[in-house]
Amino acid sequence: MSQPFYSSFGGFPSTDGPWRRRRVFGHGAAAHEAENEYYSDSEQTPVDDSISSGSLCQYKPFYARKDKDGKTQWTTKEPEDAAEPVEGRSTAKYAFLVRLRKSSDTRKKYDLDSVVVQSQLLKTQLGVALADYPGVTTSLERLVFSAPFRPFVHRWDHLTTLLEDSEGDDPASAAHLKLFLDLLYTELKEAIDVKTDLVRNGVITFEHLWTICEPETLIFGEQYGQQCVWELKHTSNCNSQDGVPYLSLAVWSVDFDGSRFGKSHGYLDIHYFEGTVKIDELEYFPLDFHTQRNTVARALIARGKSFAALAGYHYKWYTGVALAEGKARRMVRHNVESRIIIDCNAYNGSLPNYSVSVGSLGKETSPFFLEDDADSVESEESFEVVQGAFGRPLTAKEYLLCASFVRGFALRAKLWLWLFVDQIAAIRFNDNAFDSLQLPAHQKRLINALVKTQARCKDNFDDVIAGKGRGMIMLLAGPPGVGKTLTAESVADNLRVPLYVMSAGDLGTDPSAIEVKLTFIMDNVARWNAVLLLDEADVFLEARSVSDLERNKLVSIFLRMLEYYSGILFLTTNRIKNIDDAFHSRIHVTVNYPKLSETSRKHIWEAFLDKHSSVSNNEIDELSKLDMNGRVIKNIMKTALMVARSEQSETDDSPAKLDITHIRTVLAIEQS
């Protein structure tokens, strides 16, 4: 063997025999690997002391080999069995190089391992056929394709069409492409022919699932009971812990992180199955195989537009099942029928371990067409809406890929939830609630004027210390059932803003925990421009005493937080005489609610008795004489309606026909 050109480079002599163990730094796997490496000086070259370490502008090659224990040895001697490179000038003239390896298949001698494409004509043709195929860059100087050649199985029809088109226009390119396809077909014939046969029959086997799952294919399936579409990135053959195979689909969809729309990445699994299965009966399958493709696409594009319109902050109504993220990312179902606040930013802040993150959407995605006929195509331009606040406008395809849910807060359940877009509706506000309050007219005018002014001009007044004294705090005092809570509810409805109701029981008794909870609640309420109602606030308002230091802490915390609260706060109490003196300077208005008069009770009875009841005016007068508060009247009416409803047949959906006998039945039970 000829001496290599670098054989004259000087080495360093051994100081402890012909083999030297390399000194090891570090620990773990890296150190273990280094322990198994040795250096050898096969050439005992004298040291030239006149040359300082590292100053010679040359390099010294070492060659790896294994000793009898399998440890790596490094030697200056070139292995005698090293073959000369097979690729070089002599092979550069060929259109492509074919690498073969011995086959384990008894039906053939060799398997096609890989192909090195060298022809510029062929690269140009492949660039057209494999355009936008993930992981393929046909402009590379050294273009290599390896088994199992999935891009060519996925794009085979495109390649053969391209060959037919180029045979007349560019014979030279066609010749190179034909030679290439003839080679690949010998290797891919079975996969291509089986795929064609299976698809023609609308079925697929687990073994050939990957053949219909080309990257960038739109995948249809259900998630949490909702129809969804994802874009496929790639597939992987995997095995479960029990050794059962499944096909893992890496996909992305469009989500919103509170600031922008972007890609949300995830995985879908198709579990192993025997024999053939109808493609459209798989757990997940390409949308193009859906028998109602266009109908489904239109519905999901419309839902996607609704999803996009719900970006940011919104105050809505929700009816249906919602999901809460539990331990180990398991979703917990909740039945919700209440007003909700959609706010992904607040969701992220409240549940940092479950916060939403998205990747960039990048440039506009490829067009999505609803019709097969190019003359009647409906492309993404028909669906663009301006989403300038959250990035570029979404396209039809991106609407199709939008998530089926948004993230928000259920006001009644006080839970952060995933809320399905199709279950969200506008709120039907009660504009008559404030008028139905049983309060003197001048008090109602004062409350209405103060809250409207506060909502409009809350930033116009500060204390001497910036941020203090910007809120409007009202104390509603009176016995139960006289309209204190209704006042806060009706004010919120008049302003079209959320009402956040909390009680001392919601906050607990630990002062530190209460401060954290109150801070969180007040911050979110201010963010939502909501009205805050602290119902039965006596535990926070009651005068401090030397005998109850823990409760004194609660009062002090609450006093401090009131000073920096910037929204509208209603406090209700049944014991106004016991309020701590420090609160008087922090409460802007105190409204006293007297016990309901007979006239007030009559108004309440009339408000609950609708046009479907047959209760006469005389009977209402009779009911008004009973000493009851508004909450008791409401409960009696609710029970009486249930009694009336029970007397109707199960198929009768008309409103229950309520009369005085139903009310008297309930009263008799209450008074017994």
TrEMBL record:
**Annotated stretches, region: Disordered:** 1-20, 34-53
Q: Which GO terms describe its molecular function?
A: ATP binding; ATP hydrolysis activity
Query: What InterPro entries is this protein classified in?
Result: AAA+_ATPase, ATPase_AAA_core, DUF7025, P-loop_NTPase
The AAA+ ATPase domain covers 470-594
User: In which domain of life is the source organism classified?
Assistant: Eukaryota
Q: Which residue stretches does the UniProt record annotate as biased composition, category Polar residues?
A: 39-53
Which CDD domains does the UniProt record give?
RecA-like_protease (cd19481)
PANTHER family listed in its UniProt record: AAA+ ATPASE DOMAIN-CONTAINING PROTEIN (PTHR46411:SF3), FAMILY ATPASE, PUTATIVE-RELATED (PTHR46411)
Provide the protein name.
AAA+ ATPase domain-containing protein
